[in-house]
Structure prediction request, 286 residues.
Amino acid sequence: MPIVSHGKAILITCCVALLWSLAGFNIKMIDWSSYAIAGGRSIVAVCILTPLVWGSANRKIDIYVLGGAVCYAAFNYCFIASTKLTTSATAITMQYTAPVYVALLSWIFLRERITKSDIINIIFVLIGMLLVFTDSTRSGNMIGNIIAVFNGITFAGVVIFLRKQKEGNPVMSMYLGNALSGIIGVPFIIKSGIPDLPSILFLLLAGTLMGLTYMMYAKASMSLSAFETVLLPILDPVMNPVWVYLILHEIPGMMTILGNVVILISVTAHIMYGFIIEHSNNERSI
Prediction:
């Protein structure tokens, strides 16, 4: 896979984040059950990813690849179900609470220390989630918000398993995860029947974007710093509710907006602080 220049890598990653942000709009435009959408979108993504995977020399499958695949499939279903049942802003923001669960899971399973900044981040994320749930008692989105919490938990599982793949091919986890998701979704697809033409087109768009963006992101990340790789995709939760508002006029409640802002600022600040500390420690060791 040829390495692109740093400037092009930043541009590609920003474009990927913007394409990811279309997920909420795409899902809401598909007149199908959430489980059928999850399965159908994954089947399309598998078709897109197959040439990339089979063209790779590294197709190793181990427990960590399989673990990442299972977590990814679970995340796919949770994300789509929550997007259907609650606001896109909440569904996508809850995904970006993953660093909280990564810290907790790393402490439990990887024996990594939880820092003071981790604890502060967890507190602020919990405050943001409390604000969102307070708003849901009025908007009737409680079930969707509960499912949305698992967006962050399952996505954190994906991150943990990807970190355990020392010399593996992360795309394999995404590929097998989509394959598993597609297989699970077949009964729901059959039960839901053939959707209308606009739904089919938006489903094809959603699956194609999911497959292509991971290829683009993998290519761009080779030319980015770890900081840029993590921070640039924050455009996704920022723009996701904007598209839904502009096109579908979905407006979250004020407490939901406030809670999501608290979560995004907390997670972004935590990521930036972590990389500043890491950079400072590296300079001292030189």
Summary: The chain has a mean pLDDT of 83. The longest helix spans residues 254-285. The CA atoms of residues 75 and 155 lie 6 Å apart.
